[in-house]
Amino acid sequence: MMLNDHSKIHEIFADILSSITDALLVLDQQSNIIYSNQMAKELFLKENQKYGEGEKFSPFILPEPHLSQGLSQGTVLPGSIPFECYFSHVQKYMEVRAFPFPKGITLLLHDITERKIYDQEKDHAAERKQFEIEMERLDRLNSLGEMVACIGHELRNPMTTVRGFLQLLGEQAECLKFKDSFDLMIEELDKCNSIITEFLSLAKNRVLNLESGSLNEIVMAIAPLIREESARADKNVMFELEETPDLLLDQNEIRQLILNLMRNALEAMGPGKMLVVKTYREGLDVVLAVKDQGPGMDLSIIEKIGIPFVTTKENCIGLGLAVCFSIAARHNAVITFDTCSKGTTFFVRFRKRTA
């Protein structure tokens, strides 16, 4: 009677294990298969090969690094050890849970192929969207740069003439009572000239004056100006400059890039906050990092970063970062950034090149 009860219980457990939709394998310490349910047989049975208990587990799968690593962990560590792997011969992604026991290991394999494909398609969609945003940014930069390159110099010539006459008139005795007005007009003309300079910086065919120079020296030349601006706004600035090799740079352009990034960082922070500027080597690259302690960037801005006329500031036309991206591209450099609620860091990675 007892034997019949045990036999019946064995049959019930066998039926339960066979009905599980996940693959179940029990291996001994030598990786011999002690037990396999129906799903495991369907997954790991190869053509022209007899499957059965006592066979080694390894012949029924292609060697997968993740699986080998997981099995290695499972034979040493106690408890349930989850890991993922891809089984090439059945083209399936499986989530594997390993349950070690004193005489072997139990593997429960759950098919996550649909989920992985969905995740991959979602990642590809995100990459496509990012590519489209980058192409939009480049198209706008190129179009704007080409347009301004054509008309920028034509605008500057009459502006220079007007500015010169305003200076002459302002020095005349009969016009001294209008000096404040003349100074205001000259100041506004200088603002227009500054805007034109920024527009011209977007031109992709701008001629560079490349010379071997030190990024650190350019940063330190700007440092007194930034320290003064930060002090006036009750903010702090710190420079952490490591030794870096010389680069081929247009020093005027790199100065403009660094100033734009530093001023953006200062404007993003409240009083008492710290701006940190770093330079260091990362492999063969030389990196400039500008870190603020602002509130971080909104997603709406992140998606359009570097596109002309995108800004959250009042009285700003939104060219600063667009100019930075253009300058970086002309120097074979790449701009990336990290942002969160505790601040934003912009990284400019210069790839070392020779003359």
Automatic annotation (TrEMBL):
Domain Histidine kinase: 150-354
SUPFAM superfamilies: ATPase domain of HSP90 chaperone/DNA topoisomerase II/histidine kinase, Homodimeric domain of signal transducing histidine kinase
Keyword ATP-binding: yes
Swiss-Prot/TrEMBL catalytic activity: ATP + protein L-histidine = ADP + protein N-phospho-L-histidine
Listed Pfam families: HATPase_c, HisKA
InterPro entries: HATPase_C_sf, HATPase_dom, His_kinase_dom, HisK_dim/P_dom, HisK_dim/P_sf
The enzyme's E.C. designation: 2.7.13.3
Protein name per UniProt: histidine kinase
Originating species: Formimonas warabiya
